[in-house]
Amino acid sequence: MDQLNALATPNIQFPLRLSHDLSNRLNQTAKSTRIPKTTLGRIAIQSLLDQIEQKGISLVLEQASNESR
Question: Helices 37-55 and 57-67, interaxial angle, to 10°?
């Protein structure tokens, strides 16, 4: 894809499968905050990638594992 075409279509869509529980949480958060699910997803992904770049994947996964307990 040439650079001009990439700039003309800045957003890329991709399928994302969520568990029923996570989907319900996303729906409820979007409803209560009035923030679109796309925006919430974009914020969450950006935050996770920032953490991985700053701390490293091993530490981030360890923290996520500890939080889910």
Answer: 120
